[in-house]
Amino acid sequence: MKRNNLKGTLILGLAALIWGLAFVAQNRISDSVPTFTVNACRSFIAAVFLYVFWKITNYKTKTPFIPKDKKGRKEYLSASLVCGGCLAVAMNLQQFGISMYPKNAPAEAHAGFLTVLYVILVPLFSVFLKKKIKLPVWVGGLLATAGIYMLCLSGGLNKFYFGDIVIFGCAIAFAFQILAVDKYVSFTGGVKLSILQFLVVGVISLLCAAMFDFKTLELSLLIKSVLPILYLGIMSSGIAYTLQIVGQKYAEPAVASITMSFESVFAVLGGAVFSGAVLTKNEIFGCIIMFAAIITAQIPEFTKTKS
Questions:
Q1: pLDDT digits (tens, 9 = 90+) for 274-289
Q2: pLDDT of amino acid 304
Q3: Alpha-carbon Rg of the chain, whole angstroms?
Q4: Does the predicted model carry a pTM greater than 0.85?
């Protein structure tokens, strides 16, 4: 397919906007609905939404969702468990981390920028896969470290939140999930893999909710949180993922990665507009440094696509 970076950027930019505003939805329900319950609901909603989308787009081909041969089913099972397991850890750490921030803390800003560090961590973890890491990636890592300091520690330990540690753990889990998806997506296909991994996330989160959430869960609060949960399930997990697939058909890899990283910017703006969060000068400077780190880490991919 012929590349059209402008078209791809606009599509991926919309996906980034949806993902960024998802942090607002997550923060809104973090005090009323327990973590595992939130992710069980949104994951099953996403799986159903994407399955309907897959059925509609494949109604003429009548392709079976799961391969009939034993080897194919085994590969699908491996893809589901590995990708879904990593995503379950990432999503639940993210939601739990957001719930750990104090009421007046800029949770969306911290969570948004720390989560996007997966853009730095993925190439760094690739070292263990015996891939050469170029200088801009290392520079990006150093910039990210400085950004984290300004965002989380420049105001002293009283401005360091436990949620920051949890969200950084979420970024690590997302990095492993991205590497896992890269391994399996060529075999299963993007939408199928997404459906499978969301099913696994839903089952894991539901089991955890049964053990830890249901004793304290208030049904009335869950009902009041239906709209944010629907947004997370349909918009963030369902529509945004579909936009990502379509957008990446047009945009070059470096352009796509940089555009999607703008979810961190939209997370900050969303927190300021919808939650009234106010960032200090140091936190704003930290966000700028971390965004610069994300861009810097993409230079090798950008130069490769231009060569």
A1: 877 777 788 788 888 8
A2: 63
A3: 19
A4: no
Residue 272 has which token pair? 């300021």
Closest CA to 144 of 36, 298, 272, 267: 298
Residue given tokens 């750990």 in the structure block: 100
The letter for the amino acid at 85 is: G
Mean pLDDT on 205-228? 90
Q: Are 110 and 101 in contact (CB under 8 A)?
A: yes
Q: List the one residue out of 290, 294, 276, 267 whose CA is nearest residue 20.
A: 267
DSSP state of 4: -
* Alpha carbon distance 158, 242 (integer Å): 41
Contact 172, 121 (CB under 8 A): yes
What ranges make up the beta strands (E) of 153-237? none
Using the Cα atoms of residue 288, residue 290, residue 294 and residue 297 in order, give the sign of their dihedral.
Answer: positive
Residue with the two structure tokens 């050469």: 132
For 178, half-sphere exposure in the C-beta direction (CA atoms, 13 angstrom radius) is 19
